[in-house]
Specification:
This is Amidohydrolase. The protein is α/β, with parallel strands linked by helices. The protein is built from 14 helices and 15 strands. Helix 5 links the parallel strand 8 and strand 9. The longest helix is centred in the middle third of the chain and has 21 residues. The two termini are 20 Å apart.
Length: 402
């Protein structure tokens, strides 16, 4: 093992009960997100919804025998799940140099506010979450947190304004949906998202798409066994996201765009890059003239219009220049690193979720990465994340011993 600290590009915040109650204007606090306690239970209330925190999202410090999907209260979870100072202490314990936090109550890209009825309040809630991350994490602990923001998905102009506002305050990334059509929004192939993509292009904000951010995890059937679903869904969802973006033309239109496939793992990437090249090679003659809506019944597809993808595009170069995979545990992916690219993968520990490797990430990852050259280990553990998110991590020498 040749490294002792790492950057985790996918961790999670269980929002403290005080977040919106302290940060919303006073007139909105009675209707904004708030915690209600009844008997021994505890849940968020927002508009007409009651939302619990599942125990699998707050297992930090627990033995695997104690994992459970049943609802959990703040008292039952580790303080580092929701408290900034306690989180930093846990990062020190696990040698997490820097961390990027995804939301919990808002879901992975702020879907709950997109679904809200009162969009004026929803926008205030988005800004409150962002300001909390910027002020109580990133600014309070310089170099320890990569500030990732959520956006008002329902209004791309307001979203662009929020990207620009927060980027000026130090934000480095935005959370976005792996498939916005499943949220009732236009696809990335329309001009609906142009203000958002332009703002990311101009500010250098990386687009981070967490598996599940479409609120639609792919499954074979409604009664697919839960464990089978958990093993299958991440790669199934994110493979579609990868191909959608590669063939979208957005990387040509916005050459500074970068996307990260958060918690999607990496072992599946080589096959889909190879398959994309095969499809272009075999179908290029008709595909150079028009596009078509394919269907599973082999009935005549409807022509969608002119071809828009440049069939001479170097797909692997497009991937190398714009797309970044992330992994918690993926030994198969590491064995395929020469195909994926050592510059295109980043490590994560998923604190405090049940897939997390905290606090043993360094020891575990050392077994998978220890055979690699030192410069490659440095890229995967720190360097790539620093570059992709244009972020300067803390100096490990300044971090107190835990």
């Amino acid at each position: 093992m040749s490294f002792s600290w790492f950057i985790s590009v996918d961790d999670h915040l269980i929002e403290p009960a005080r977040l919106w109650q302290e940060r919303l204007p006073e007139k909105w606090r009675r209707t904004g997100p708030r915690i209600v306690r009844e008997d021994k239970s505890e849940f968020w209330v927002y508009e007409d919804r009651q939302i619990v925190t599942t125990g699998l999202n707050a297992v930090a410090g627990k033995k695997r025998e104690e994992f459970s999907p049943e609802p959990i209260t703040y008292e039952e979870m580790r303080q580092g799940c929701y408290d900034p100072a306690a989180r930093v202490a846990d990062m020190n314990q696990g040698h997490v140099l820097s961390s990027m936090l995804f939301p919990s109550l808002p879901r992975y890209c702020g879907q709950i506010f997109h679904e809200a009825k009162d969009k004026e309040l929803a926008l205030l809630c988005v800004r409150a979450w962002n300001d909390f991350i910027l002020e109580e994490f990133a600014q309070a602990y310089p170099g320890r947190f990569i500030p990732m923001m959520i956006i008002p998905l329902w209004d791309p102009v307001a979203a662009a304004a929020e990207i620009e506002r927060t980027a000026a305050l130090g934000a480095k990334s935005i959370a976005f949906s792996e498939n916005p059509t499943k949220l009732g929004l236009p696809s990335i192939h329309t001009d609906f998202w142009d203000p958002v993509l332009q703002a990311c292009n101009d500010t250098g904000s990386t687009i981070s798409m967490h598996v599940g951010s479409s609120s639609n995890m792919i499954r074979t059937s409604e009664d697919m066994p839960t464990l089978a679903f958990m093993a299958y869904s991440a790669a199934a969802n994110q493979a579609g996201t990868l191909l959608d973006w590669l063939f979208s033309g957005n990387f040509v239109k916005y050459p500074n765009l970068k996307i990260a496939l958060s918690e999607g793992s990496i072992g599946w990437i080589p096959y889909f890059l190879e398959r994309a090249e095969q499809v272009v090679d075999k179908q290029r003659f008709w595909a150079s003239r028009f596009d078509i809506s394919m269907n599973a019944t082999h009935e005549r597809g409807e022509q969608k219009g002119k071809a828009t993808f440049d069939l001479d595009t170097d797909i692997r170069r497009l991937f190398r220049d714009h797309v970044y995979g992330t992994f918690i545990e993926d030994q198969a992916g590491i064995r395929l690193l020469d195909i994926i690219g050592e510059d295109n993968v980043m490590l994560e520990c998923d604190y405090p979720h049940s897939d997390s490797t905290w606090p043993d990430t360094v020891q575990m990852a050392g077994k998978w990465l220890g055979h690699l050259p030192q410069d490659v280990q440095d890229k995967i553990t720190v360097g790539n994340a620093s570059r992709v998110y244009n972020f300067t991590p803390a100096d490990p020498a300044t971090i107190p011993e835990s």
